[in-house]
Amino acid sequence: MKKLFALVLIAILTLTTTAFAATYRYDGDDIVFNYDENIFEIVEDDHTDDEDSVVLAAKDKTWDQTYVRIYVAELEDGEKFPTMAEFAEMPDTTVEQMETWAGFKNVFTYTLENDDDTTQTFFIAPVYDDDGEIDDSLTVEIGVTKMDDADKAMLRDDAISEILDTLKVDG
User: Fold this and answer.
1) Residue ranges per structural domain of the chain
2) Quick one: pLDDT band at residue 148, thresholds 50, 70, 90?
3) Which among 75, 24, 20 has a CA at the least distance from the CA of 45?
4) 22-62, pLDDT tens digit by residue?
5) What are phi and psi of 7, to 5 degrees?
6) What is the pTM of this model?
7) DSSP per position, the chain
8) Potential cystine with 29: which of 58, 118, 169, 170 (Cβ 3.0-4.6 Å)?
9) What would the CATH number be for the domain defined by 23-169?
10) What sign does the CA torsion over 78, 80, 85, 90 have?
């Protein structure tokens, strides 16, 4: 009986936790990610023929200005994805290149510390088509406010990581 009760409890917990997760999917598979509807809400969802943008904002007001912006732009004919040298020209910013990030290759990243205790971190990645050519440019911007409570900051960072771990873009 105890084993049956434990199994039923696990099943209930599994169902309730998955019920709060939502999958965002735009236009087939162009932009796909999972997010917790209890933690984030989509506050912007803007799509044109050559650009897609989705912004998630934290519902928890103690997280202040926490948001995740996912922006995909189609590269025009002849337009090239920026190089490290071009990114290095940005004033007052240290740009780094990572081999991989969240499943994307050759990603540039930089962080801006603002005077109002907010931090913006940018990840810019090429999106390759089926032929291995760069088709689109992905920019993920994460905005957070400095928090004194380390546990809340860790929960917030984990919630953001869950979104990024599931992010997929089809070029």
Assistant:
1) 23-169
2) confident
3) 24
4) 778 765 558 889 999 999 999 999 988 888 999 999 998 88
5) -65, -40
6) 0.82
7) -HHHHHHHHHHHHHHHHHHTEEEEEETTTTEEEEEETTTEEEEEEEE-SSEEEEEEEES-GGGTT-EEEEEEEEPPTT--PPPHHHHHTSTT---EEEEEETTEEEEEEEEEE-TTSEEEEEEEEEEE-TTS-EEEEEEEEEEEE--S-HHHHHHHHHHHHHHHHH-EE--
8) 170
9) 3.40.1000
10) positive
Asked if residue 3 has pLDDT above 90, the reply is no
CA 107/CA 59 separation, integer angstroms: 29
What mean pLDDT, rounded, does the chain reach? Answer: 83
- Among candidate residues 83, 102, 82, the one with its CA nearest the CA of residue 168: 102
pLDDT (0 to 100) of residue 137: 93
Which two three-digit tokens encode residue 99?
Answer: 């081999």
